[in-house]
Amino acid sequence: xxxxxxxxxxxxxxxxxxAAVAVVKIIGFFxxxxxxxxxxxxxxxxxxxxxxxxxxxxxxxxxxxPLAISKLTSQAHAQGRENQKRKIFRTAIWxxxxxxxxxxxxxFFGAEQLAVIQNNKMATQPIRALAPAxxxxxxxxxxxxxxxxxxxxxxxxxxxxLEALCKVxxxxxxxxxxxxxxxxxxxxxxxxxxxxxxxTVLSMCFLIVYLATHRNRxxxxxxxxxxGAIMKSILSIGIPITLSNCAMSxxxxxxxxxxxxxxxxxxxLTEVAAAALKGQYSYAMDMLNMVSSFVYPVTMxxxxxxxxxxARKDYAGADRTVSTAFRIIAMLAxxxxxxxxxxxxxxxxxxxxAQYEGxxxxxxxxxxxxIATIFVCMMILTNAILQTxxxxxxxxxxxxxxxxxxxxxxxxxxxxxxxNIHGAPVSTLCCYAVIVSLNMxxxxxxxxxxPKYIQLFAKPVVASALMGGAAWAVHGFxxxxxxxxxxxxxxxxxxxxxxxxxxxxxxGVLVIALRILRAEDLKSIPHxxxxxxxxxLK
Length: 538
Hints:
There is one protein chain. The chain has 538 residues and is mainly alpha-helical. The chain has helices spanning 4-62, 65-78, 82-109, 111-117, 124-149, 154-180, 185-213, 227-266, 271-292, 295-311, 315-342, 344-351, 356-388, 393-414, 423-446, 453-482, 488-513, 519-522, 528-535. The protein is built from 19 helices and no strands. The relative contact order is 0.10.
């Protein structure tokens, strides 16, 4: 009974963050879709190049270290050590201040060199416009880790939503205004990306005000650890996780350099022509990233239960939790990936009305990347499971192996005139397939009770295949009926939405009919009991 409040508190916090992620991604959809229509393929590549460099610096400073702060703060909070909590924050804030300052200065003053290294010198202005965001996000990460460690997820959620709103409310209008001024696409991309910077500044100000007004002024007699000991603890916890997440960001930057380089040197294209092809590929990648981001709240809700079970040596309980995680991710990722693949070109045409040719070119990319989405989601889950099992180094190794596969395949395929940019989604699919294969082997090896993969995935695979077939057939039928008397875009929009609705309906029926979803799968997530009763699950 004593543990129950803690579990409820955790689930409440996970629900808050899950809701925030959903809201942020919905806002992000209304940012990315109009932005892609404004930027076009070339401007999209300038924007994406800057963002990939930003992601590397961001991951180095914010991937694992905030988690370390959260964990140390949580321990001190549970022990009632107020002075220790304050000392952790004071020590950490200077670390993040230094990391953020170095990252921002590197991006701002080295923008031109970074753009040239990426074979995309026109991305200089977008890189420079994003530079201040690195500093702000570093401080944001420290403050978020500190509040989360005290069991308070609301400040993080509010700051994330505020950040997303600024991208839409500032970045989009600024990009549109610069287009109206007749400026080049590099300046349009810089304007759009400046909205991200403003969002981080306002979010940082919000958290500073929040911490100042919610400061615990209660006197405490505990003696805090020394700054050196606290710094050592932060780094020992945070560095392995940072390396795991940072590896893929670095590989993505290298990958972009190779793609643009091979298109220019291998195929003899101009920088602008190469950027246009890379932009078409980036359109499709946006859809992959949007789906995979929803996996994180699920892992946050489920994986801690596995850690608790393993600590109690309750291996049967850990097996049930891991199996539940696999089933839920399979139930979400498989239909999403198959649906994106089955309706790839219609979806791209639907969301890119102002870039029709680019949408048609992006369709074949999304057909492969839809399947890659499944592997990305599984990678996120298996990484979390391995970290729960205390095997933090393994995800680093598997990501590096997959990244090498991606880089080598891109160098060979993209430089082939008969394949060119179409080699990029092939290498992405192979990269994540390799990572997931290795991760799933290690999960099987190190879990005390071996997961039964065939039983876990057989039914979701069958249901997703039938769903994809239904969506494809309904779209084709509807489009043929509508194409005679409607605009091409209108006919495609109605047919695509009809296909999606048909797929959702078929999959929903199959999930219940094939008993893919079980009552035990919903017990560990927020409001699970209500869903069990609503769906009559056993």
